[in-house]
Design goal:
Elements: H1 5-33, H2 41-44, H3 46-66, H4 74-96, E1 99-101, E2 105-108, E3 112-115, H5 116-144
Antiparallel strand pairs: 1-2, 2-3
Helix pairs in contact: 1-3, 1-5, 3-4, 4-5
């Protein structure tokens, strides 16, 4: 009997980002429609909503596939995902003109500028959050689905 471990790995991987992005979408809609904050929602949220859950699912499939070959703790495996996401996302955003790299920081959509000394600590916080989500949420779901 085929138990479809990769399908279960994909489903376990997409759970956390899908739930989180629904909460973020709600916050964006409330801030834009109720509080009249001019946030370009179609540029900020639509692409990540399509891409991030799929990347989580595919990353979990990769974890399940690599497990017999090289055992890497799931938290560390999950913490590697933002390294690839930020690299590819930054290159794509620069190429499409959404992101500009300047001498003192980066600028999103020609309006929001972040200095470099703030980007590094936030990236480390992001790595820690990914580590915890993968270790406790995705790891728990992998155990429940019998693929851990």
């Amino acid at each position: 009997m085929n138990t479809h471990p990769y399908l279960r790995a994909y489903m376990a991987g997409i759970f956390a980002p899908s739930l989180f992005l629904l909460l973020v979408l709600t916050a964006f809609i409330v801030s834009r429609l109720v509080f009249q904050v001019p946030i370009p929602i179609e540029r900020v949220l639509v692409f990540p909503m399509a891409l991030v859950p799929n990347l989580f699912g595919l990353w979990n499939i990769l974890y399940v596939w690599l497990r017999p070959r090289r055992h890497l703790p799931i938290g560390f495996h999950g913490a590697l995902l933002p390294v690839f996401m930020v690299s590819l996302g930054g290159l794509g955003a620069c190429w499409l003109g959404f992101l500009t790299i300047g001498p003192h920081g980066i600028t999103w959509f020609h309006t929001i500028t972040a200095p470099y000394y703030l980007i590094a600590p936030w990236f480390v916080v992001g790595l820690a959050l990914y580590y915890l989500v993968w270790k406790y949420v995705v790891g728990f779901l992998n155990q429940v689905l019998g693929i851990a």
